[in-house]
Amino acid sequence: MEKKIIVILLVFAFCVPSFGLSPMGPPKAGLKQGQFGLGLNYTIGEMDLEFSASGVSSETGEVESDMLFVDLGYGIMDQWEGYVRLGIAKYEIEEWDGGNEFAYGFGTKVTISEQDAITWGGLFQMTWVEGDDNIFGFDVDVDAYEIQLAIGPTYEADGMRIYGGPFLHLLDGDGKASGIVPGWGPASATFDMEQESVFGGYVGAQFDVAENSCVKVEAQFTGDAWAIMGGIGWGF
Q1: Per-residue pLDDT tens for 139-162?
Q2: Which residue ranges form the domains of the chain, and what is each CATH number?
Q3: Which of 170, 121, 165, 124 is nearest to 21 (CA)?
């Protein structure tokens, strides 16, 4: 049975929906009360994930991800905003292309203090991915979520904002795979998945290009993951 579990874990490593560090933006509220914001963000990255089932663990190695999100934000108060996001995510492991998966989430940002050109604040966001696939004769269903929590400063001057700071990254998921293991017959197992590293840091910048619109770039790193994001945002 243990050999069957190991084989199935290897299938998990090639069948998971995409997970990667999601774009966060400045760790502060950026919308005034009653104002809406719209953002389009594209992210590429890599992440190591760990799978476990029946006491047996397996690491995926580098999961390459491409994610495209549309964010809709709203200023609840001048110092507090919330947002929702919808998008698609694509992942690859070595020569295998996992296709596109639906992803969605929400987040909130709070301004803590403002002093001259520097603002301190924090953010919290969650992203979900659900998917099912069939590969190597195995049916795989996965349901997982990702949490990011960040705090730090934002420097503003002349139509430019530079921001960054430390963040926490947590990922938790579960799923089931069933199929035929050559030489052993039918086999199925449930599994759990989580991130390899919890702590990380990020840095980014936004540049105004017209009234109420900007372009943005961002980089995030943990001990076992990285991501680079680019996008554009509008306020209205």
Answers
A1: 777 778 899 999 999 999 999 999
A2: 2-235 (2.40.128)
A3: 170
pTM for the full model?
A: 0.86
The confidence band for 9, taking pLDDT boundaries of 50, 70 and 90, is low
Q: Residues 6 or more apart from 159 whose CB is under 8 A from it?
A: 207, 208
Q: How far apart, in whole angstroms, are the C-alpha atoms of residue 139 and residue 172?
A: 20
Q: What is the DSSP string of 62-117?
A: -EEEEEEEEEEEEEEETTEEEEEEEEEEEEEETTEEEEEEEEEEEEEEEEEEEETT
Contacts of 104 (CB under 8 A, 6+ apart): 84, 85, 86, 87, 127, 128
Residue 60 in tokens = 């995926």
Instruction: Inform me whether the pLDDT recorded for 95 exceeds 50.
Output: no
Can you tell me the distance from the alpha carbon of 217 to that of 41, in angstroms, rounded to the nearest whole number? 9
